[in-house]
Amino acid sequence: MTSEDQISTETRDRIARQFIEAIPHASALGMSLDRLGTGEAEISMAWNADFVGDPRSGIIHGGVISALMDTCCGAAVLSHPTGPRSTATIDLRIDYMRAAAPGQRITARATCYHVTRSVAFVRAQAMDEDSENPVATATGAFTLER
Amino acid sequence: MADRNEPLPQIKLRRDNALRLLVEGVPYIRWMGIRFDRRGDELTAIMPFDQKLIGNPFLPAIHGGATAAFLEIAALVELSWSAMWEDLESGRIAPDAAMPDSLPRLPKTIDFTVDYLRSGLPRDAYARARVVRSGRRYASVHVEAWQDNRAKLIAQATAHFLMPQG
């Protein structure tokens, strides 16, 4: 790895950290922005006893998955090559395929697959450590401020 | 059938205890700071404003994910509450903090669609859910959230749930 790559990696990490730090709710849930592509984002968070929805099973509440999906979709929109200034969710649909395994890290990946002048269309998946079988999928429409 | 002569304080205590056990048993509801106000069987979910709910500090606005979670919690609690109401009133179930199994299991979310209508202000938010249809296996619930004005919704959602079996 050249020193130039090193700097860009550090810069990328700093931007990723600042992105989450700028969103108090994402920061409170312990999210980390792991990857930001062009119109693509990956955000993950650790399992935490405070986020459990069913105390008898230790399964994370669906609302936590919604917050993770929403943040990840928003990040994908902001990283779109057309360079939107800001975004807000218009609607978001989440399908819960299975319960996330207690104790495991949850990772969401979102793709902003189409944009018009004022709307972005996004889809996302959330996985626990079994990346073959998604925990949930999401599809949403977001506003675009240019 | 419910006993017409049951003393009023006892009725209120029984209902409030059952609701408290249902809500306080869920760590994430506690973490979000969400509580429920009860009038007879009618529930209103309340999400007091907190800095950690902010999604956009520049506006500022409540995070869309926090709003979604609030709606999902309001829908799930309403559905569980309405499903246990008859059993609670007739005395078939008597929720007890010492026995977690005395409360029915929670329904599971199948899907959840949220519609954002206005930016959530840094203020308290309220939500009421309505069980549109509840069958033996599946239920459909609609939920609305507002802040200062009941008529000016900040978000609404429709959710489908799988009812606990057995």
Would you kindly provide a brief summary of this structure?
With 146 residues, chain A is an alpha+beta fold. Chain A has helices spanning 3-21, 24-28, 62-78; strands at residues 31-36, 40-45, 52-54, 59-60, 89-96, 106-115, 119-127, 136-143. Chain B has one domain: Thiol Ester Dehydrase, Chain A (Roll).
Task: Supply the number of helical segments of chain B.
Answer: 3
Shape of chain A: globular
Q: What level of helicity do the residues of chain A show? A: 25-40%
- If you average the pLDDT of chain B, what whole number results? 93
CATH architecture of chain A: Roll
Order of helices and strands of chain B: HHEEEEHEEEE
Helix content of chain B: 25-40%
How many domains is the backbone of chain B divided into? 1
Give me the secondary-structure category of chain A.
Answer: alpha+beta
Order of helices and strands of chain A: HHEEEEHEEEE
Strand tally of chain A, please? 8
Low-confidence stretches of chain B: none
- CATH topology-level fold name of chain A: Thiol Ester Dehydrase, Chain A
Termini separation of chain B comes to 23 Å
Your description of this structure?
- The complex is a heterodimer of chains A (146) and B (166).
- Chain A has one domain (3-143): Hotdog Thioesterase (Thiol Ester Dehydrase, Chain A).
- Chain A is built from three helices and eight strands; from the N terminus they run ααββββαββββ.
- Chain A has helices spanning 3-21, 24-28, 62-78; strands spanning 31-36, 40-45, 52-54, 59-60, 89-96, 106-115, 119-127, 136-143.
- A six-stranded antiparallel beta sheet of chain A has the order 1-2-6-7-8-5.
- Chain B has 166 residues and is α+β, with helices and mostly antiparallel strands.
- Chain B has three helices and eight strands.
- The radius of gyration of chain B is 17 Å and the shape is globular.
- The model of chain B has no long low-confidence stretch (mean pLDDT 93).
- Chains A and B meet through helix 2, strand 3, helix 3 and strand 5 of A and helix 2, strand 3, strand 4, helix 3 and strand 5 of B.
- Strand 5 of chain A pairs antiparallel with strand 5 (108-116) of chain B.
